[in-house]
Amino acid sequence: xxxxxxxALARKKRFTDAxxxxxxxxxxxxxxxxxxxxxxxxxxxxxIISMSKEWNQELADQCETAKFSNEQAAILVDKNWNLxxxxxxxxxxxxxxxxxxxxxxxxxxxxxxxxxxxxKNSKTTYDIxxxxxxxxxxxxxxxxxxxxxxxxxxxxxVINGRKQFALYLTSKxxxxxxxxxxxxxxxxxxxxxxxxxxxxxxxxxxxxxxxKLFDNYKFVEEKK
Length: 224
Description:
By secondary structure, the chain is an alpha+beta fold. The chain contains six helices and 14 strands. Strand 4 and strand 5 form a beta hairpin. The radius of gyration is 24 Å and the shape is elongated.
């Protein structure tokens, strides 16, 4: 004799009731489930514990709960939750936001330099231009810069001894709190002129820090 737990029976009854309520078939039930909001359970620090469209009272008793629409929660579905956190509005505990989790880092030093903050500017003369849109970060090399490497094989090229460099997207004016890192290869710049890196979120408004390897940087934020 096979014993079925009360929890399993309860789940079966919920499934049967929901199917009957929404047309009596799987297609109708599936459409209904897809339209439901997501429940996201998290701890006091915003660390995501679980998420589901089905309510879980046990998790609700142990954790804080946030509710998001399909569009809002899309950034979490099938993603690494450790990269994100739930932020609660400081004036209203019922207002929640999904945001990229900042990573606390030490300021990176080299033999001669520390991290250098890029300033937004409209320079016409530059070595590389960094453009930040809502979905991507783009690095474009100036023609004059590319000409310096015309006689050098791309695989042998370096900039101040380095073949690649990192761009750190951080809290405004503070490199200690990093949201995202984009690594750019000099090889890609020389071969493609323009290098596009998709970003997991809209980082416009953040600061960008990097090592001072190039003489002239141009940094712009796109409107879209």
